[in-house]
């Protein structure tokens, strides 16, 4: 993707002009996005983005520049200008790319950009009809299709030289139900780090019906009771709450600055004994996976919390320098326009020893949170607030009637301690995460769990 001689010249410019570490991130990205409402195309985009980012360290200081002009003269001039702010004594460097990385292989067979647009639209039409035909209450269906082929080359002055091809595809389906002047939505978004063959592994019409089912169920629901009660959170995207409420506080970007509630707590008990929290970017073909992270390190399984004890943070290269800790292959970025920092990949609570049925049966009265929608969290304090898109009452150890308007309010540190039952039905779903290094693809998941005491907010009828 870029001649090694040019890379060597860039790195020589880095070192001879004052930097002690240099890195390039070259990207060639093909993306297609299509949106339909009611089966009609609302918008569409297909394009290619190509460019390079150059990062330079001087101790704990860094600078990042990027361009889509890959001429040798421009890259060298840009590098020299960047190192001016980090300049110190000049040094000589002998560079060898002798630290090759073999990416974790995520297999694919059909590149989406080789598929005709008509076939993608046909899938979207199937999804639209599947949701629309679920019931007369469904008044609108929106379908968003995305595929991406991201080819990257990562090299640095420590000898790393690696290429990675990331091929993803996903369809997001939202159904709107109306009854008595009330509107409710249901949402699903299957996706994978796979090519177009992904759609041979799933029934997209069944996913569409699921979105419609959620919307139809909730539009007839009464408003949720409020107060402090046990909350059972179902498997799958319920893990988003822990991604937000706990995961961000375990990223080195906040831990290194001492602004995380979990700073300086390695080896300490921060959760109940039944909680093991993992981040793993190497799970084959999962939405949040990569072959290597965006700093060129092979992805790996990182056990963050084990049986309640904090074992590791998610660490990128620069914050690893600040903390005196090795990178955990957690450096991520949206594109060459962003410098990487520590971010999550596929983050999940590991399976426990209970069953979902046992958890429900052992909960006399509470709330069953089947689908978490969205929320906000303060990484410094861990305080969070999440809305539910699908919820039910638990009465006498059974799931009973649906309720709407519920929010989960709490604190990340406290909720980790208050988890007292974990099921054996782990599921990881797909999502996006927005932070300082841009929007990235993430997986979030968990088995069914119970939080013994939690504040449920909302409005009562």
From TrEMBL:
Residues 23-78 form the Metalloprotease TldD/E N-terminal domain. The lineage of its organism: Bacteria, Bacillati, Bacillota, Clostridia, Lutisporales. The keyword Hydrolase applies. It holds the Pfam family PmbA_TldD_1st. Residues 112-218 form the Metalloprotease TldD/E central domain. GO terms for biological process: proteolysis. It comes from Lutispora thermophila DSM 19022. This is TldD protein. Residues 227-458 form the Metalloprotease TldD/E C-terminal domain. The keyword Protease applies. SUPFAM superfamilies: Putative modulator of DNA gyrase, PmbA/TldD. Belongs to the peptidase U62 family.
């Amino acid at each position: 993707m870029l001649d090694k001689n040019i890379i060597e010249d860039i790195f020589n410019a880095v070192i001879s002009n004052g930097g002690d570490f240099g890195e390039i991130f070259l990207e060639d990205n093909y993306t297609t996005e299509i949106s339909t409402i009611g089966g009609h195309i609302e918008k569409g985009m297909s394009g290619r983005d190509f460019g390079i980012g150059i990062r330079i360290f001087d101790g704990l200081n860094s600078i990042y520049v990027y361009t889509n002009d890959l001429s040798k003269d421009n890259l060298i001039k840009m590098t020299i200008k960047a190192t001016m702010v980090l300049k110190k004594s000049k040094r000589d460097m002998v560079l060898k790319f002798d630290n090759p990385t073999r990416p974790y292989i995520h297999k694919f067979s059909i590149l989406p950009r080789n598929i005709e647009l008509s076939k993608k639209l046909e899938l979207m039409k199937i999804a639209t009809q599947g949701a629309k035909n679920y019931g007369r209450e469904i008044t609108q269906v929106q379908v968003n299709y995305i595929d991406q082929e991201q080819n990257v080359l990562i090299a640095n002055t420590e000898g790393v030289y690696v290429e990675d091809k990331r091929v993803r595809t996903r369809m997001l389906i939202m159904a709107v139900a109306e009854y008595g002047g009330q509107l409710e939505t249901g949402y699903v978004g299957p996706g994978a780090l796979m090519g177009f063959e992904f759609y041979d592994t799933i029934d997209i019409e069944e996913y569409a019906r699921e979105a419609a089912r959620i919307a139809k169920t909730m539009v007839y629901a009464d408003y949720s009771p409020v107060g402090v009660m046990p909350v059972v959170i179902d498997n799958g995207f319920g893990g988003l709450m822990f991604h937000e409420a706990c995961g961000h506080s375990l990223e080195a970007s906040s831990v290194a600055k001492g602004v995380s509630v979990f700073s300086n707590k390695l080896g300490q008990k921060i959760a109940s004994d039944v909680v093991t929290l993992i981040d793993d970017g190497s799970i084959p073909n999962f939405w949040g996976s990569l072959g290597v992270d965006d700093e060129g390190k092979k992805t790996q399984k990182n056990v963050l919390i084990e049986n309640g004890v904090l074992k590791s943070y998610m660490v990128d290269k620069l914050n690893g320098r600040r903390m005196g800790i090795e990178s955990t292959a957690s450096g991520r970025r949206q594109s060459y326009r962003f410098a990487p920092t520590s971010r999550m990949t596929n983050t999940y609570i590991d399976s426990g020893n209970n069953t979902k049925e046992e958890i429900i049966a052992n909960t006399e009265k509470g709330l069953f949170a089947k689908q978490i929608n969205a929320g906000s969290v303060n990484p410094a304090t861990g305080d969070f607030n999440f809305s539910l898109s699908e919820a039910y009452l638990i009465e006498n150890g059974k799931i009973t009637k649906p309720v709407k308007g519920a929010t989960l309010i709490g604190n990340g540190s406290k909720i980790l301690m208050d988890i007292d039952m974990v099921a054996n039905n782990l599921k990881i779903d797909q999502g996006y995460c927005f932070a300082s290094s841009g929007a990235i693809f993430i997986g979030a998941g968990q088995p069914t769990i119970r939080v013994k005491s939690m504040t449920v907010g909302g409005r009562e009828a």
